[in-house]
Amino acid sequence: MALKSVRQRRMQANYLDIGTAEAENFVLMGTGFTDLNEEPGAQTSSKRYVNDASTSKGITGYEWQAPYTADQIRSEEAIAYICEIGELLKTGADAETDYVIVDLDQKESAENTYHARKFHVAIEVASFGNEDGEMNCEGNLLGIGDVVEGTFNTSTKKFTAKGDTPS
């Protein structure tokens, strides 16, 4: 029997929009990030009916977040953007942006284009830590609203929602 291959973390690229309301600017969250995971956080409900001995459960929503840990490499634009939010104690819309997860193992028909999901997120900076004299930052990307499925072109750094025409 052949061994099954497990999907490698490097097959998923993460991009953060550090641009303005007028012009998006997606940058790669790669170098410097030592941990970046996805937690869908399914919310459930349950009910037991009179004719059943067991409870029936269902999914009612999601409390999506993506915990991160990053070394403070300020030349990395995504890290500088995140650190500024925490250092200046930004709130509300000033601490929100778009985040895209790109599946590099799911190529689409157009060149350099892959399946992707876009989330609007609030950036929570929970701590600035010290790891053997090197500074890091930790927190969560907190989901706002529903995920948007689409494609992402890794050359142009443009997200296209499913059903939209690429610009």
TrEMBL record:
Entry superkingdom: Bacteria
Name of protein: Phage major tail protein, TP901-1 family
Species of provenance: Anaerostipes caccae (strain DSM 14662 / CCUG 47493 / JCM 13470 / NCIMB 13811 / L1-92)
Lineage: Bacteria, Bacillati, Bacillota, Clostridia, Lachnospirales
